[in-house]
């Protein structure tokens, strides 16, 4: 419903939450209010909205917002209804029917991604701010709610289009997309939602499987908990309706670490049936309940996948067994909505296409995955190498912003079993002088790579970390190599055996850069061809020609078979990542076009990728 002053959607008007996947799949409650849809919108190119009081909602002082935007699509995208670029400051406003909660409860407003700095007001009260454009945040808005239920929400977002010290990934700093960079994603670009929770409630959680089948540790935050509250946390683990474990623990602090051992005969006799893998993505349901005596305080649902990820003797091990990686580069970019998925179904369909093409996983490239996308990777069995968006200038500010976003991403996503590695840097983006061994800048940038790699390993010791993927490796558990030769014979010569891989890593420069800066530290580590291929097909004027091109389907399949076959024949690589899943603007090197249509018979592509035609 559109009015002169606001866009209003009541809980009754909103789509029922049951029709949508919960925006936070690892910690769900039945009741939540979807606040996506039409919001009022206004660009603030002169940046005078703060001084002019655009956040005010009191009668007679409310400024007119002159346009309507469809949230969560960024204003640069067609689906937003705005389709304009170049705004550094943008404002959003809407009303929503949110009833003030009963005593002892709180209302939490969630914004899943706002690029880059956000300020939020409710009924003219500033309820919080957040920095970082790729991971969401939550604000307790209870104190700002008005009686009667109608609440006025205002969001201001600041995203400098040319800030190279801001983590931006593949978002272009030039006015128009060029080379391998794309249109920007400013402001709100993932879900906005609200929920009512008890004052003492389950908040962030992380599942970490143990080394032995059935072992798992839960790290959980119980917001508002105090030792004298006499609270207990009950956890019930079920699989296919059978209870594997039921335990109850005293809540002695806001943060708890609880070890569990699940009991089931299959763990001793057929452990693979309970372990998570791409071939059998078993997920165990968990119901978590806070109790005070026999009175329920809070209840939420989660799930856990039991699996381990390690590296050993040049191999990548999943559940203790070698697991050669068949990954594809996933940029998560749609032509009509940019980094925002066009709808919920698109997230599941993307994962299904990865599986259908014969890959076992993806490299989520230069963007932080939507938690709902990770849910489908968990449920359907797709491995994930997780990048974070890069800054492009080295400075203390850039490093602060990068580490800040990394910490948020790991905190939010480490419980997903599909994530099997973190990629700290890509192709020296943000650390351009890291190979300058004798310069002060070079040494500082090397320390930065080592520092961020160490930070990720400290935050999450359960997964491998790739310090600088592509070339100029200096730290981490895996060496990632980018090699875009279009000759299968060259790939065989460089990577056909362990000896060939070792010689290539030590002496070759496929991308013109040294592959490893510290050979001794890399000795014995797995080597993954983490970007290769990239066949241009269905190209047109203005497309980037950096990957070369073929002119017909037969030539496309022939080159695909030659390159992928060479890697399948390798005995020295721990896996590969094909570039890329879909065409993305001027990079027309996808196995699928930008509308997710295969460029050749999908069955033939799958046979090549999976090695089924050999």
Structure description:
This protein has 614 residues and is of the alpha/beta class. The protein folds into three domains: 8-198, Jelly Rolls; 201-304, Immunoglobulins (Immunoglobulin-like); 319-609, TIM Barrel, CATH 3.20.20. Helix 3 (344-356) runs parallel beside helix 4 and helix 7 runs parallel beside helix 10.
What is the compact description of this entry?
With 614 residues, this protein is of the alpha/beta class.
As a percent range, the share of strand residues is 25-35%
Report the CATH architecture of the largest domain: Alpha-Beta Barrel
Low-confidence spans: 1-18
Instruction: Name the structural class.
Output: alpha/beta
Helix content range of the residues, please? Answer: 10-25%
Task: Please specify the SSE layout and strand pairing.
Layout (H helix, E strand, L loop, with lengths): L7 E2 L23 E2 L2 E7 L5 H4 L14 E5 L17 E9 L7 E7 L2 E2 L1 E6 L2 E7 L5 E4 L9 E9 L28 E2 L3 E7 L2 E9 L5 E9 L7 E9 L2 E10 L3 E7 L3 H5 L14 E9 L2 E10 L4 E4 L2 E4 L2 E2 L2 E6 L13 H13 L4 E4 L6 H10 L2 E4 L9 H18 L5 E8 L13 H20 L5 E5 L9 E5 L4 H8 L2 H10 L11 H4 L4 E7 L19 H16 L6 E5 L22 H8 L5
Parallel strand pairs: 1-5, 24-25, 24-31, 25-26, 26-27, 27-28, 29-30, 30-31
Antiparallel strand pairs: 2-13, 3-4, 3-5, 5-11, 6-10, 6-13, 7-12, 8-9, 8-11, 14-15, 15-18, 16-17, 16-19, 19-20, 21-22, 22-23
Helix pairs in contact: 3-4, 5-6, 7-10, 10-11
